[in-house]
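Hi everyone, sorry if this is the wrong subforum. Our group has a chain we'd like a structural model of before ordering constructs, and none of us has done structure prediction before. Sequence below.
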Amino acid sequence: MLSLGGFRDEPSRSLVVALSLPAAALAADGTFDKTLPFAGAPIVSVSTGAGYIHVYPGPDNQLHLIGRLHSHPGWFSSDDDADKRIRQIIANPPILQSGNIITIGSTHGSDLYRNITIDYDVLTPRATTLKAESGSGNLDIGGIEAAVTGQTG
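Answer:
Right subforum, don't worry. Here is the predicted structure as tokens:
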């Protein structure tokens, strides 16, 4: 019997809990933390397919980046290798640096990133020229004094 106050039938409650566990049990998360030194004013490009990008001022000679990875298996499918792929990304994050030019999040459509979102927290000098793009996530940018362009879907 079901009442407005909640479940009175214990088997029904067990079924609801059992149906809600698989997606949570299959989700995988991870974090990477990188500091990139450079000389001069940096030119930084940050992109993510789905996830937030937060950028704030930091020291004048380095960029500090924290990437937070989350897997998102579908309702009727599992992603058994998500944990393995997240470990691969953490071991080799999508960061390219050539002097003071830094590109973060360029995945080139790689299957490695399927059903994985990456949120980025970035501390970079105020003099950074910044381009930030998220396919579906918010941009939060403050204190950057050079040119800033941003786009979100």
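For your construct planning: Residues 10-26 form the longest helix (17 residues). The chain is about 20% helix and 40% strand.
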